[in-house]
Automatic annotation (TrEMBL), chains A, B:
Native organism: Cellulomonas fimi (strain ATCC 484 / DSM 20113 / JCM 1341 / CCUG 24087 / LMG 16345 / NBRC 15513 / NCIMB 8980 / NCTC 7547 / NRS-133)
InterPro entries linked to this entry: ATPase_NBD, ROK, ROK_cs, WH-like_DNA-bd_sf, WH_DNA-bd_sf
Family statement: Belongs to the ROK (NagC/XylR) family.
Transmembrane stretches, start-end: none
Xref: SUPFAM superfamilies: Actin-like ATPase domain (SSF53067), Winged helix' DNA-binding domain (SSF46785)
Protein name: ROK family protein
Record Gene3D superfamilies: 3.30.420.40, Winged helix-like DNA-binding domain superfamily/Winged helix DNA-binding domain
């Protein structure tokens, strides 16, 4: 299928993706306008558009109002022509979304997490879930482009996670992409939660900043970076690991092997521990739920929970400042399940820190926003990863993983 | 002149720059090989090469050994066809270099710094210096492409520095680029010391890392970032400001308005203050000289100076780790005058920290090296900035500054 299909020339795939993305972004657009916007010849546009129509990805949507001369035929995306599945794999829960080519979410659901189960069992469970739901919502399996799987970083395209939080030790070096490709028959793109969330944020639109980061807080803290519409990945696709920078040389030990990490000082696990120490009563059903309890109490104005969260917010402010200074950002978006719950308590602290301490504040400000997709940002990002690879290959997921997908048969 | 010349189409300038850069990188290369390497048509290569030869930038260097058929004419760069001037403007000293198109330094000299002099006087002094030395070393002024001026960040392309260390207050918002263009008649590119040093490092060759940072320590601390051969600039060309991230929420106040900054804890000024507190006797002729005195004593094995520098090195290690985590780096190069003096004391600490705390260490290591250009890295970078804009426009200095240069008459 299109750019994931073996045998398609790179240049053709790239012009096809660029034209498809222009049509998506424009809503409706004529061939003449495409010629102008791309710089391709009219003949190239005509050939590529013909092929996109034949493949069902684009439809002719009637003629524009005449401005004299023959009115132009308008083209638009057929959003239901293709679908992508996004999976957010975490120990506490697995979140799924199915998105169509237009980026609309047509299904979203959540199942129990990986827990301490054998990774092979979890992979079989994921494959069965996807098969069942694709059938239930009536999506033609032939139209599913691929699967974007999102997990805590750091990851490697071959083996999946190379370093895992203690609860997911069994996944270290597990060949996640290959196992899921075997189990689902779908090409698999792999990325970490924060990077996927940034892609999802960009994809869902409205981002005008030339440089922005999604600051992601689930049970851990990470970030995804997009500059000039392109994901910033670094040498091994693990850029943005802001949760494990050191902000206190004498700080507490972190599961990552370092000490004084932002995650160890300000992440939900640290917040829960600090709350317990302050005598706050918690249900004790895991960090996510306990964190939510603290956030609700703080929102009601209770002093002790507020103090605990404000301390976390100060460190998150430092994380935002560090990202802004290193990357010269214009926008920081707070996202992920923990900011979905407590984001409004963090925003004022992060804003204040950036206003006071962002180094290039003489040049421009750094805006702070909460994502409207915060609770399922990672799964939405997984689907966006696949759509992105279809529409704009150079912004796609981890390169090696895409290459791998290209070598695979594309049948579903 | 070439890409700095007004009226040249962007596409032509870009293919010309790409071909010129290929010839430079190859040493010698034939037209057929250029066709293969670029994907341009033989006709385009022929036209562009003819123009490069006419302009004196490229010469025919004899025929390759025959492999049957007519031996191919080899092309090579004429390094003395063009020159670039690099100026590193600092309060303690102004360093100048003249580099030729091949990147060789044909002159380097140093003069007293800006001190507290009126910026207009300093600009006049710089223009006179350049004029005199260009004449003295026998460079044809018509062959000087431009001037790359490097100063402490953050900077803005229009006004120069937007936030300055206390000693250079008079330069805040001074229209540096415009004043120097008026005074020298040369197009001026502006950048901060650390970014320029990174470009110079990349330019001087041998960098194979896909993502690297130059960690620069002069009197302040900063960094320049290059990924896949392209400078990472961020939204306003102030990316890499690692000296002003917070690593201690309760740390000392910094001149930048924040507190607990790496520069305030580990920069030469902080090192000198800590040494004084530890009772180490210092000449007291400015931070740079005092820092050098401490470094020499530490190199002789004296305990107190060693302790003071090790503490600084721990924080520099944190800076390197932060850069590596956020950017997923493969290489950190220590450069600038302070690392030129004390770098070998810092390397083991930085290496140890990265080996232990770089988050994606399961994927790859991060190498640490000292620049061979460390003392004059910023000035060399200033010249590289200009050469880079001639050879590979998309990697050039600050965009707005280049645009500005394009609007200027190109006469020297």
């Amino acid at each position: 299928m299109s750019s994931l299909q073996p045998g398609l020339g790179a240049a053709h795939a790239s012009s096809r993706a660029a034209i498809l993305d222009l049509i998506r972004a424009a809503g409706t657009i004529s061939r003449v306008e495409l010629t102008r916007a791309t710089g391709f010849t009219a003949a190239t546009i005509s050939t590529v558009v013909r092929r996109l129509i034949d493949d069902g990805l684009v439809v002719e949507a009637g003629r524009a109002e005449s401005t004299g001369g023959k009115p132009r035929m308008l083209l638009e995306l057929e959003p239901y022509a293709r679908f992508a599945v996004g999976v957010h794999l975490d120990h506490a829960g697995i979140t799924y979304v199915i998105a169509n080519l237009g980026g609309a979410i047509v299904a979203r659901w959540r199942r129990p997490g990986a827990g301490s189960d054998d990774p092979r069992e979890v992979v079989a469970r994921i494959a069965a879930e996807i098969r069942a739901t694709v059938a239930r919502v009536g999506v033609d399996p032939q139209r599913v482009l691929g699967l974007g799987v999102v997990s805590p970083g750091p990851i490697s395209p071959r083996t999946g996670m190379t370093l895992t939080p203690p609860v997911m030790q069994a996944w270290t070096e597990f060949p996640l992409a290959a196992a899921l490709e075997d189990a689902t028959g779908l090409p698999v793109l792999l990325d970490n939660d924060a990077t996927a969330a940034a892609i999802g944020e960009y994809w869902s639109g409205g981002i005008t900043a030339s440089a922005f980061a999604a600051l992601y807080m689930g049970t851990g803290i990470g970030s995804g970076i997009i500059v000039d519409g392109t994901v910033f990945r670094g040498a091994s696709s693990n850029a943005g690991e802001i949760g494990h920078i050191c902000v206190d040389l004498d700080g507490p030990e972190c599961w990552c092997g370092s000490a004084g990490c932002i995650e160890a000082l300000a992440g939900p696990v640290a917040v829960v521990a600090a709350a317990r120490e302050a005598g706050i009563e918690l249900p004790g059903r895991g960090a996510s739920e306990d964190f939510a309890t603290i956030a609700r109490a703080a929102a009601r104005g209770e002093e002790a929970p507020l103090r605990v969260l404000r301390r976390s917010a100060r460190y998150v402010g430092v994380a935002a400042q560090t990202l802004a200074n290193v990357l010269d950002l214009e926008l920081v978006v707070l996202t992920g399940p923990s900011f979905a719950i407590a984001g409004s308590l963090y925003v004022p602290e992060v804003e204040a820190r950036l206003a006071q301490s962002f180094f290039a504040r003489g040049n421009h400000t750094v805006r702070v926003a909460i994502s409207s997709n915060a609770p399922e940002a990672a799964a939405v990002g997984g689907a966006a990863l696949v759509l992105q690879s279809e529409l704009t290959p150079r912004q796609a997921g981890m390169r090696m993983s895409v290459d791998r997908a290209l070598e695979m048969p594309s049948g579903v």
